[in-house]
Amino acid sequence: MDFTGKTIWITGASSGIGEGLALAFARAGARLVLSGRRAEALAEVAGRCQAQTLLLPFEATDLAILPEVVAEAEAKTGGIDILVNNAGISQRSLALDTDFDVYRRIMEVDFFAPLRLTQLALPAMVRRGSGAIVNNASVAGKVGSPLRTAYCAAKHAMVGWSDSLRSEIRQYGVSVHVVTPGFVATGIAANALKGDGSVNGPSDDPVNAGIGIDEAAMQILDALASDTPEIPVGRPGAPEMQLLDLMRADPRQLFEVMANMAPKVAR
Fold first, then answer.
1. Which residue among 10, 160, 233, 244 has the highest number of C-beta atoms inside a 10 angstrom radius?
2. Domain 7-261 maps to which CATH number in 1.10.357.10, 3.40.50.720, 3.60.10.10, 3.60.15.10?
């Protein structure tokens, strides 16, 4: 896959992996559409990209405005070649302590919002007979991790939906790629929701010691260039990356590892 001259739409582009992808795709010669909630942060990223860039700030879960947003993106660019569904939010709370509204919020942001955006952007790709959908899931989309029941549910849904979608639309020349990052040093832990819906805030979460966003972005671009369907991203050999192999090799052992990681709380 060559990115030169391609129009690439990235959601959640104002920080984290989205920011890294914007810079990496710009260096690869792509044109960019950058979306997120924070217009000023998007503008700052765009200023460092040195590429033709369209800024389309919007709230991902405002599903009613998405048809208008997609129409604007296609009209102003002439068509989207690659849609990167990157916006998301995580969780740090035990299931027994998590309000139902937190489950609903995380499913809306991490699953229903990218699903709806893809529904609206996909028909134009099918008509052209080319395009790619890139869905940023997580190792948590393959493994059930404690403190993340909502996040794991949303990311498992994204992986399953992506795999099924891939099987249906390959015949039209459109590919689907699932990214499964492990630990990447972003604000994902600080911005995660606690059980009552409040923000987790700064902490010593192990994700903070992960690879940088530039390294993560290059791993993704290298895999996309070779048309890889599922793209693990992280430090080679890191414990969280080994979980992907353990899930296939010994599910029972994986379940024991996860149970031992769960906080022990007297009830």
1. 10
2. 3.40.50.720
- Around Cβ 18, how many Cβ atoms within 10 Å? 26
CB atoms within 10 A of CB 254: 20
Contacts of 39 (CB under 8 A, 6+ apart): 55, 57
Distance of CA 172 to the CA centre of its chain: 24
pLDDT score at 55? 98
pLDDT in tens, 189-245: 999 999 999 999 999 999 999 999 999 999 999 999 999 999 999 999 999 999 999
List 76's β-bridge partners, or say none: none
Catalytic residue among 103, 151, 161, 183: 151
Spacing of C-alpha 197 from chain mean position: 21
* Residues 106-153 pLDDT 10s: 999 999 999 999 999 999 999 999 999 999 999 999 999 999 999 999
The pLDDT of residue 192 is: 98
Structural element, H or E, at residue 39: helix 39-49
Asked if 151 is an active-site residue, the reply is: yes
HSE-up (13 A, CA, CB side) for residue 162 = 30
Residue 170 is given by DSSP the state: G
Count H helices and E strands in the chain, helices first: 9, 7
Amino acid 11: pLDDT: 98
* Torsion sign across C-alpha atoms 100, 84, 78, 54: positive
Q: What is the pLDDT of residue 54?
A: 98
Q: What is the pTM of this model?
A: 0.96
